[in-house]
Each structure stands twice: as C-alpha cells, then as structure tokens.
Amino acid sequence: MSVEPSTLGQTVSEIVQRHGNLPTRLLQILREVQDSLTWLSPEAMDAVAKEVGLSLDKVRRVAEFYSFLYTTPRGSYDILFSDNITDRMLGNRQLLHYLCDKLKVSIGQPRADGRVTVGVTSCTGMCDQGPAALVNGYALTSLDKPRLDRIAALVNQLAPLSEWPQEYFEVTTNIRRADILLGRHFADGAALRAVLKRGPDAMLEELVKSGLRGQGGAGFKLALKWISCRKAPGAVKYVVCNADEGEPGTFKDRVLMQEYADLVFEGMTLCGRVIGARQGFVYLRGEYRYLLEPLKATLQRRREIGLLGKNILGEPGFDFDIDIHLGAGAYVCGEESALIESLEGKHGVPRIRPPFPTTHGYLNKPTVVNNVETFAVTAKIAAEGGAWFASRGTLESKGTKLLSVSGDCERPGIYEYPFGVTVRRVLEDCGARDAQGVQMAGPAGHTISSKQYDRRICFDDLSTGGSFMVFAKHRDILDGMRNFAHFFVHESCGFCTPCRVGTSLLCDLVDKVHTGHGARADLDEMRRLGRIMKAGSHCGLGQTAPNSVLDSLDQFPEAWTRRLRSTSYEPAFDLDASLGEARRLSGRDDPGAHLPDEYSAMVRLAGLLTEREAPLSDDERNLLGALP
Amino acid sequence: MSGELSFTLDNQPVPFQDGQTIMEAARAAGVYIPHLCFNPDFAPHGSCRVCLVKVNGRTQASCTTPAMAGQVVQSETEELRDIRRGILEMMFVEGNHICPACEKSGACQLQAVAYYVGMLASPFTYFYPRRALDASHPDVVIDFNRCILCELCVRASRDMDGKNVFAVQNRGIQAHLVINTPSGKLGATTFSITDKAAQVCPTGAIMMKNQGYGSPIGLRLYDRESVKIVGDVAQAPESAGGRRHE
Ligand SMILES: Cc1cc2nc3c(=O)[nH]c(=O)nc-3n(C[C@H](O)[C@H](O)[C@H](O)COP(=O)(O)O)c2cc1C
Ligand code: SF4
Ligand code: SF4
Ligand code: FES
Ligand code: FES
After folding, report:
1. Is the pTM of this model over 0.90?
2. A492 contacts on B by Cβ (under 8 Å)
3. What does the domain layout of chain B look like in residue ranges?
4. B6-76 maps to CATH 3.30.930.10
C-alpha cells in the first residue's frame, strides 16, 4: 500500500505527539504507526526519527529488532500462526498450509493485492487452546479448518476485525487447580491498608519470613531485591512488572493479567510504597495485545476508588501510578535488563551486569523487576502474613507455583501446587496417561523422561517459571528439540558470539540428525557447542539455549541414535544443495535437479520413513499433510 | 595486610584499583588475556566473549567484570582454552575469512588470537554468507565478510569521531554491520582515514586502499612476536604494521 506523503506525515505526527515526543515511547510509537500504515516504510521511519528527534539509524535499529515490526510491506491483515511444539502437536502446520492455499499466498509474502500476509511466530501463549494465531496482533484460538474457511472469506470481504465472530478471539483461563494464590478471596486494597498500618519495614519483615522467591524462574529472593532497591541511593525509583512471558509453553501470567489483574497491580503498588517509587510499568508481551484495553480499564477503576494515583487510600504523599508498555515479539526482552532497554524505547540487548537494575535500572534509576506471579503473591503475603505463606511448600521453596500445563494431556490449563509436588502427580492430575517425557520450564529448562517422574518441582530440584509441556509416547522427542532449536535461532539478540553463532550451528546439527543425515560425531559436536554456549554467552538466553538438546541426549539417547547413519562421520557439505543455484540458473526443474525446495525435502523424508520403522513424527505428519 | 587491593590470576597476585575490571588490572600488570571487542581506549562492550575467565569458579567476561579483592581468577586453563577456541571457530565460520589471501594476514588481531588459543581450522560447518564488499570510498575499502561485530568502529565513529558512520542492524544471526547513509555506501559518508574508526578494527574488515602486502611474510606484526607481547593491532605503532598513527 502506498500512502500519500502528507497523510503519512500527519499520521506519524499525531501519534508521536500523543506520546509526548518522548524517545522512551519509540517502540510504542512504531507499533502504532505500523497499525495505521501496515508496515514501517523508510519514509515512515524517517518521519518518526524527525518527529522524535532521533537519528534514523536508531529508529531503524528498533524497527529491525522486533519481529512484530516490519520494514518490508505486509498485508492489511497480518496473520501469524503460533509455532510452538504444542501448536505443532495440534496440527498447526497443516492449517497454515491450508490457509495459505485458501488465500493463495505463500508464507511470509504479502498477496499481490496487498491484502493479507500469513506467517509464523514463536509461541503466543495459547498452548492450552491451540492451534493459535495472531491477526493484526490479536489472539485467535482453537483454530480448525471451518474457522479458517470463514477467516479466509472475511479477509477476502475486507471485513474489519470487529465484524469477525467474537468467539474466534475468546481466550479461556482454564484454571484447573487453585491453592492459596488463585483460590482465596482477596479484598482490593487489603495489602495497601496493611502497609499503611504497619509500615514498609514490617512488610519487608513479612516478605523475609515468607521466604518468597521470584516466580519468573530464576528464584531470586524477593525480599533481598526489594531491600536493596529501597536502600539504593536516589529519590526516583521504579517498579517494573515483567509480563513478557516469552518462554514457550508458559501462559500463567496471561491468566493472572486476565483474571487477577487487581492482585498484580496491588503488588506493584505495595512495592512502590516499600521501595519509595511513584511510577510502575507493566511490560506486556505484544502477543497479549488483546489485554491492553481491559487492563487500562482496571487501572482506571483503581484510580477512581483511590487505590492508584495521588494520595492513595487518602494517605498524603502515597502516590503511585502504572503505565503499560507493549512488547513487539522478542523473547530476549523477558531478560530483565533487555526489558528495561525496551521500556526505554530501544532494541532489547541485555546490559552488562553489574550494575544490576536494583541500583541502575530504568533510566539508570534503582528499579525492581519482578514477574507477574511474584507481584500477585506479594499482595497476598502483605494481607495474610509471611508465616501463612511459608506454611506451604518445601524448606527452600516456600509457597505455591502456577504451572502452565499443555501438550498431550486431557486437561491442559493452569495448576497451582505447593512447591515440592512431583512430576508424576501433575501428570496424573492433568490426565496425561501415556507421557514419555515432559519439557519443564520451557525449551530453556529441563527435558524429563519417565525415569524422573518422582523428581520435585521446586528450586532445589526442578526449578521452573511454570511451563510444563507433555510428550505422549507416540511423539518424536526430536520434533520438540528441532522446534526449540529453531526458536532460539529466531530469538537470539545477536549481540554475543556464542549465542548468535552457536544457536545456528546447534540448530543445523539438530536438523541434520532429524532428517537422517547425522552421524555420531554430530552428537559429540552438539555437546561441545552446548558447553561453549552455556559458559560463554552474555545472557541467560544463550546460556540456557542448549539445555533441551543436552538433556535429551542424556534422557532420550535412542531418539537421537535411531536417526543416525551408521558411519561415524557424515559431511555437512551437500552436493545437491551446492549445485542447486547453478541448476536453477540453467532453468532445470526436473527431479534430477534435486532443487532444495520443500517438496523434495518431503519426498526425501517420506523415503526415509519407509526405510526405517521409526514412528511418524508430527513434523513429518504435518509436512506430509501439506504435500501438494 | 597492606593497603593494596589484589586478586590472583592463575595463582599470581594482581594488584588493582577500585573501579578497574579484571581485564584492565591484568593489562596494567602486563598479563595478557585474549580479547577482541575490548580496546583500552573504549568502555568495555562484552560481546566477543573471547576474554572469558573463571572468577571464583564462574565463567565471566574479564573485560566487564569488576576486579574485587580476594577473587580467584583462572585464565590459562585447558577448559577455558577450549571454550575460547570454540568461540574463535564460530567467528571464522560465521564470516568469510580467507587468511592466506587476506591483506591483513599476519597483522590481524583475529588471526593472532586464533593462533594464540590454538585454533588452526574450524570443525564447524561454514556458513559462507553472501556479503557484498564496499569500495565506494576513495581511501578505504570495507569488506563485511571479515566483520566479527565487535562494534569498535561503531563506537569509535559515534563516540570519538562524532560521525556515527556505522551501525549494527537486525538481530540474531541476521545481525550485520551497516553504513548509516540511505545508499548504505561508505563513499557517501564523511568517513576519513584519520578517523579513530579507521584505526580500530581488529580484523581485515576496514582496509586502506593504495597500499598492501607491505611487509613480507616473517616480518609482519604478529610474525615477529606473539599477540601476547604485541597486544592490540590498534595499539601497535603503524611503523610496526599496527594501526596506531604516531
Ligand atoms: C532470555 C530470558 C527470558 C526471560 N523471560 C522472562 C519472562 O518472560 N518473564 C519473567 O518474569 N522473567 C523472565 N526472565 C527472568 C528475568 O530476567 C528476571 O529474572 C525476572 O523477571 C525477575 O522476576 P522474579 O524474581 O519475580 O522472577 C527471563 C530471563 C531470560 C534470560
Ligand atoms: S546470549 Fe544471545 S541473547 Fe544474550 S546477548 Fe548473547 S546473543 Fe544476545
Ligand atoms: S568492521 Fe571491524 S571494527 Fe567494525 S564491527 Fe566489524 S570487526 Fe568490529
Ligand atoms: S574482549 Fe571481553 S567480551 Fe570481547
Ligand atoms: S587474516 Fe583474514 S580477516 Fe584477518
């Protein structure tokens, strides 16, 4: 679509002014400009740069970094299929090809009339109600062929999203098991009344007593973080709620933001009072765009009843407000220092640490960053006391944990358990009767086989941010490993060598073995790569990216070895691939040309499958289902 | 105890001043820790990861880790050598490095560090990326094939030359160096060979035109002495084949 220069300038200028021309709003500005213009053309970026007063390369840096921002044209309807392994288990690839056929588009390419693009994206956090997708940033759930038929028709009729059937956008919370966090009633304002009555120091004492540790995965002692931020010099401090929830298979923060937002906001306000901050931010992942308006309404309601804003609960000087920033498709922005960079409007490369956010966070001011669930729990602790919370859980891991259960089970959804629950118990409760393994804590976590089902979910054994993806016996574990390896390639920020290059090398090796071209030496090379990435990467993304491959080599060796060629070494050099370009240039398209397109990949896979008795994997089934 | 702060590096005491990193303290004490994105004239960057050491048992980048009294730092261990070698191997497969034909060969810090950590060839699969060469500038040619994304030129041009000629764009394995002009060409910028940014590249990515292969094999900067003694190409005098203008 081409836009008249004058309208472009006006659109940009209005948006930038609405954001007060602030560079810290750059990411929000670019999101909105794109919403109006469908993509960020060089002219649009130039206009933004001039209006905000930044150099063009800075604007481009942001636009090129986030996967939901486009610097090449997109359709007016932008449909992105969630491509987590759980979506794949539910047949998303077949649906993707089905929709592309219906709409006559190829993946990632806008249709000639500029009306629609169809592509894929990392997990959108709808694993319990997939296959899922996003349309212009809004979540679509429980997709099937009839829905896609209808969607294709709506796109071709140019129907605005407001006229689409609203049940397509319905996101259910699927709370299957509630304990002290989800189950007990909470009276709005209870935590704030408690802190006003007893003072910040008494609250910190309760938090120390509670033993609460960060629920985002790393398990940092909460009270320690708040105390060091309270102590940090400086009059201006910030509270940041990490609602980026990018770890594939995790969706508990989505449920909290949808159903328990008051609890989360109350925890943030409590934190503001304790550390002496007046401003809070929620960093909400772009995939949860649909929650923005409801959350803004909740904030407004809290202001109206005196729980937010100036003189909270009538206490002079108790001022605190919360602003919501949307992410734009970057898993690394869940890392707290990358998140802060992103909040400042920049691209999300993790900072050098130390210094840590508690002393040098947002705009270099002392900042507490906590997970959504952590803030919700603090509000409960303030109201009910630390001892009450500590009565649950284990010695090292107090309280409860929300698990996001998905994959092969009868009852996917949210399960709240006291820390220390065994994997076996969770599998029984969710109705996973023939699980051969579980991917715990997401692709960056632990790959568990049935030998380990008596291990406990807690910081001293299986630590987790909450992702719990079940693999039934008929699944191929390597489908998961391949999906995860591609995820990390896509999500590496590219700053440091071991992660930038290592994720690609590891992914190529996994692909090589998965397609039956691997040899023993490749498995050894994976282990060495994994060691280098873990030890050498700048941030947690690269340090944990090889975990699933390394774990599965130990836990599911046969899943790897049965795919190996019998030789000990197999060159990565592929003669046909190397000749492909010459053959294409010379106009050959006969089968003997071995052009490396998806078709020949499928033919090769099909041949491979008949050769050995390996069960049909989902990737293969998906690919085969999409055969022309 | 005397008032002097110190930590141990491979069992040798290294004194330091408050605020110094392990790398800075080691350099001041004359102890070499291999590095590429670190340059003493710039704030640490922490991206290449070649300078990894073990600090009290944890692997960390020595160029970004503050020195602290009593730290036990290990650098020249077989485990760390293997990790550093692996990182160098990654750099060589990510770009296109044709050392035997490269004009920078022998005076290239990347190559010298690779030799230092014992890397001779990479077991990893080469990416063979397609990156165009930019010879639009009258005095300088930039060969993106040899760029390791250390961002020294970016930092030098932005922070010292005040020109902001270079930038990194995109993310992940797509990250790459660009020239900040609409055409993307170096010739369209005010870049000059006297810029700091023209002196800092640790590889053969930014090369002077109208000269080349000046020193015979055997007499090139790193032929004469190991990088351990010579140090950074950007610090060595130009007369010796380094980059520093005297
Ligand atoms: C690559 C990466 C992604 C992360 N993503 C998230 C996330 O989505 N949500 C989250 O709460 N923490 C995430 N974290 C952890 C945060 O850096 C940080 O530890 C956390 O927000 C602190 O909150 P907590 O102590 O309440 O858990 C991530 C870390 C890394 C390295
Ligand atoms: S580890 Fe990966 S994500 Fe982290 S800084 Fe390095 S390249 Fe970026
Ligand atoms: S051109 Fe040289 S100095 Fe610039 S980023 Fe690349 S390797 Fe570093
Ligand atoms: S020299 Fe320390 S990370 Fe590059
Ligand atoms: S020797 Fe080729 S780039 Fe250094």
Report:
1. yes
2. 171-173
3. 6-76, 81-209
4. no
